[in-house]
C-alpha cells in the first residue's frame, strides 16, 4: 500500500534539504512535493489520506510562513522517510496547533487518526491505490 507522509518545516531551506536527502535515499523526486502556498493544499492533502483537521492545520502553517513537505512512498520506505524528516527539523504540528489556538485560531480540533500514524512530528497516512498527490 502506498503511504502519504506529511511534515511542516519553518523554512524553505530545511524543506529543500529534507527533499534532497529523500532523493539521495532513493525516493523518486516525483513522489516529493514542497508546498509554500495554501491554494489547493487542503484538498490535495485530504485526497492523500490526511484528516481534514490536519489538512487545515498544515494550511495554517503555510499561511504563517511554513512549508509543507508531502512524500508518497511504499510501506517499506516509511521508516526511512520519517527518520530523514525528523533529522531535518520538522515542526510538531500538534504543538503549533495548540499555540495557534491560544492566539485565537479557530481551526478544527485534532481528530483521531484511526488509519494514520502519528510518528511524533511526522504524519503517515494510508492512501487508496490510484490516488496521487498532485499540485
Describe the model.
With 135 residues, the protein is α+β, with helices and mostly antiparallel strands. The chain has a single domain, classed as Alpha-Beta Plaits. It is built from five helices and five strands. It has helices spanning 12-24, 41-47, 52-63, 78-87, 93-102; strands at residues 2-9, 32-35, 67-74, 117-119, 122-126. A hairpin with a 2-residue loop joins β4 and β5. The protein is globular, with a radius of gyration of 13 Å. Residues 110-135 have a biased composition (Basic and acidic residues). Residues 98-135 are annotated as: Disordered.
Total of DSSP H or I helical runs spanning 4+ residues? 5
- Beta-strand residue fraction: 15-25%
Oligomer: single chain
Please tell me how large the radius of gyration is. Answer: 13 Å
What do the pLDDT scores average to? 86
Give the termini separation: 21 Å
CATH class: Alpha Beta
Secondary structure category = alpha+beta
Name the shape in a single word.
globular
Helix content: 25-40%
Query: How is the CATH topology named?
Result: Alpha-Beta Plaits
Adjacency order of strands in the biggest sheet: 2-3-1-5-4
Residue stretches low in confidence (pLDDT < 50, at least 5 long) are none
What pattern of helices and strands is seen along the backbone?
A: EHEHHEHHEE
Known CATH architecture:
2-Layer Sandwich
Total domain count: 1
How many strands appear in the DSSP assignment? 5
Biggest sheet statistics: 5 strands, antiparallel
